[in-house]
Write a structure and sequence with these properties.
heterodimer; A: 365 residues; alpha+beta; Gyrase A, domain 2; Elongation Factor Tu (Ef-tu), domain 3; six-stranded mixed beta sheet; 9 helices; 19 strands; 21% helix; globular; B: 122 residues; OB fold (Dihydrolipoamide Acetyltransferase, E2P); six-stranded antiparallel beta sheet; three-stranded antiparallel beta sheet; 4 helices; 9 strands
Chain lengths: 365, 122
C-alpha cells in the first residue's frame, strides 16, 4: 500500500489483455472502460451480468470477541446487533459529524470483515488501529471481484450452487473452483449481485472462469460510476465527505435509533440534533430536463438565479437515456418534484428534484 | 479523406466552394467514448479561428469544439440533438457538427493534411 508507486491489482494483466483503457485511480492503475464502451457496459450489467475488479478497495479483518462493541465507537451503525453472516452499510464520522468514509461491515462470526474505499484505505486503517489496536489486519492477500446484474446469481451458482440461498446483505464462505471465498450478496450498481473475496493468486482464474460465461462481460470504472449514480448510491469524496453529515446526505437510515439516542461515536451529538431538528441542506436526486449532463460542481439555482447548492455527481444515465445527477440543495427545495435550474456553461437549464434511486433496484431481499 | 484538413484540436474540415463542413475525427470520438450530448453553434454566429463554437459531451466528460477556420456559421447539424451517438458511428459523415462560410480560405493552409494528422494523433 505504498502511496507513491502506482499499484496493480491481480487482474491488471487480464484487463490489458481484454483491451481496457487503464487510468490511475486511488493509487491503482484501473480499467476505466473496455472496448465495448461505458454505455454498452452499463446496459449489459443491467440486462445480464458485469464483472468488476474492485480489488483496489481495502479489505480488513477485525478479530476479538468484543470487536463489534469496540467498532461501534468509530461508526454510526448498529454493529452489535448485526446477525452472523449479515453485512451492513455504515459510516466513519469525525467529531463534527462529517463523514470520513463509507464502508461495509460483515459479522463473520469470530471476526468482523470490513471493506473500505480505496482512496481512504490508509486513513481508515490508521483510524481503526488507533481505536482497535492490533486486532486490525489489512487483508492484502485478497482480491475482490464483483459480479453484478440479474444474471449474476445463475452464473455464480454454476460454480457455487449455495449462493442462491443468500439474501441481499448476507454472506457466506463457499468453495469456488476449490478455493474458499467469502461471497457477499451486495454491490454498487443497484442490481442483484455478489462481491467475491478471493485470494490474489486465484483471482485471475476465477475472473476468467466467470468471463467465459456468455452472459458476463468485463466492466470498467466508467460504467461502475454511471450504474451507482442511477442507483442513487453515494461516491465518497464527491457526494459525501468530511463536510457533509449523514443527515444532510440523506443517510439517516445508517444512524439507527439506538445509536442516535446513546451516541458513542464521533460527532454523535451533532448528528442526533440534526436528526431531530433537521438540516439546512440535503442531498437529492436531480434530473436535468434537457439532454445536457450537469456534472460535478455545477451550481443549482432557483428561478430567480439564487444559488441553492451544487451538483456532487452528475452525468449521463444510459438506462434512463438522459442526464442524471445528485447534489445538495437548501432543504426547502429538497422536495420531490421541485423545479430548479442547473447552471450549465453559464446558462440556466431546467431541472427537477427526483426521488432516488432513478432506476428500480434489483436486490433480492 | 484526402480532401480533408485537420486541426490540432482533432477537428476535420471539408471545403466545397467557400463552405466548410466541420466535425471531429475518428480518433477524437474514440478518445471521448460514447457521445451523449452535442451543442452546435447558432446559425449566423461569426467565429474567429480557434474560437470555441460547440460542445460535445461523452459519458465521461464535456469537451469544447473550436472553429478550425474563421467565418460565419451557416448550419448546425440538427440530427445530433436527438442522435448524438452519430458522432461515434459516422464521425466523417452524418456526425458532422456545423458548416462555416470561410472568411479567410488561406487559413486552410495552416491545417494538417491526412498524413500529418495521422502522425500527430498517434
Amino acid at each position: 500500500m505504498s502511496s507513491d508507486a502506482i499499484n496493480k491489482t491481480p487482474l491488471h494483466g487480464l484487463h490489458v489483455e481484454l483491451g481496457a483503457r487503464m487510468v490511475p485511480f486511488a493509487g491503482y492503475e484501473m480499467p476505466v472502460q473496455f472496448p465495448a464502451g461505458v454505455k454498452t457496459e452499463h446496459l449489459h450489467t443491467r440486462a445480464k451480468a458485469g464483472l468488476f475488479d474492485v480489488s483496489h478497495m481495502g479489505q480488513v479483518r477485525i478479530s476479538g470477541t468484543d470487536a463489534a462493541e469496540r467498532f461501534e465507537a468509530l461508526v454510526t451503525g448498529n454493529i452489535t446487533g448485526l446477525a452472523e453472516s449479515a453485512l451492513r452499510y455504515t459510516l466513519f464520522t469525525n467529531v463534527t459529524g462529517g463523514i470520513l468514509d463509507d464502508l461495509m461491515v460483515t459479522n463473520a462470526g469470530d471476526h468482523l470483515f470490513v471493506v473500505v474505499n480505496a482512496a481512504c484505505k490508509e486513513t481508515d486503517l490508521a483510524l481503526m488501529r488507533a481505536g482497535l489496536g492490533d486486532t486490525v489486519e489489512a487483508l492484502e492477500d485478497l482480491a475482490l471481484i464483483a459480479l453484478q446484474g440479474p444474471a449474476a446469481v445463475a452464473v455464480l451458482a454454476e460454480l457455487a450452487p449455495g449462493v442462491t440461498g443468500l439474501k441481499f446483505m448476507t454472506s457466506g464462505t463457499f468453495a469456488i473452483e476449490g478455493t474458499d471465498c467469502l461471497v457477499s450478496r451486495c454491490g454498487y450498481t443497484g442490481e442483484d449481485g455478489f462481491e467475491i473475496s478471493v485470494p490474489n493468486d486465484k483471482a485471475e482464474a476465477l475472473a476468467r472462469r466467470l468471463l467465459a460465461h456468455s452472459d458476463v462481460e468485463a466492466i470498467g470504472l466508467g460504467a461502475r460510476d454511471s450504474l451507482r449514480l442511477e442507483a442513487g448510491l453515494c461516491l465518497y469524496g464527491h457526494d459525501i465527505d468530511t463536510t457533509t453529515t449523514p443527515i444532510e446526505a440523506g443517510l439517516s437510515w445508517a444512524v439507527p435509533k439506538r445509536r442516535r439516542e446513546d451516541g458513542g461515536f464521533p460527532g454523535a451529538e451533532i448528528i442526533r440534533r440534526q436528526a431531530a431538528d433537521g438540516t439546512t441542506r440535503r442531498r437529492v436526486g436531480i434530473r436535468p430536463e434537457g439532454r445536457a449532463p450537469a456534472r460535478e460542481g455545477t451550481q443549482i439555482a432557483d428561478g430567480e438565479g439564487r444559488i441553492l447548492g451544487a451538483i456532487t455527481s452528475g452525468g449521463f444515465g444510459p438506462s434512463i437515456d438522459g442526464p442524471v445527477a445528485m447534489g445538495y440543495v437548501e432543504t426547502e427545495f429538497a422536495e420531490e418534484g421541485t423545479q430548479l435550474n442547473v447552471i450549465v456553461r453559464d446558462k440556466p437549464m431546467p431541472a427537477r428534484v427526483e426521488a432516488l434511486p432513478f432506476v428500480p433496484p434489483g436486490y433480492k431481499r | 479523406m484526402s480532401d480533408m484538413k485537420f486541426s490540432e484540436d482533432h477537428e476535420w474540415i471539408r471545403v466545397e466552394g467557400d463552405i466548410g463542413t466541420v466535425g471531429i475525427t475518428d480518433h477524437a470520438q474514440e478518445q471521448l467514448g460514447d457521445v451523449v450530448f452535442v451543442e452546435v453553434p447558432e446559425v449566423g454566429m461569426t467565429a474567429a479561428k480557434d474560437e470555441q463554437v460547440a460542445v460535445v459531451e461523452s459519458v465521461k466528460a464535456a469537451s469544447e469544439i473550436f472553429a478550425p477556420v474563421s467565418g460565419e456559421i451557416v448550419e448546425g447539424n440538427a440530427v445530433l440533438a436527438d442522435a448524438p451517438e452519430t458522432v461515434n458511428s459516422d464521425p466523417y459523415g452524418a456526425g458532422w457538427f456545423f458548416k462555416i462560410k470561410l472568411s479567410d480560405p488561406s487559413e486552410l493552409e495552416k491545417l494538417m493534411d491526412e498524413d500529418a494528422y495521422k502522425a500527430f494523433a498517434s
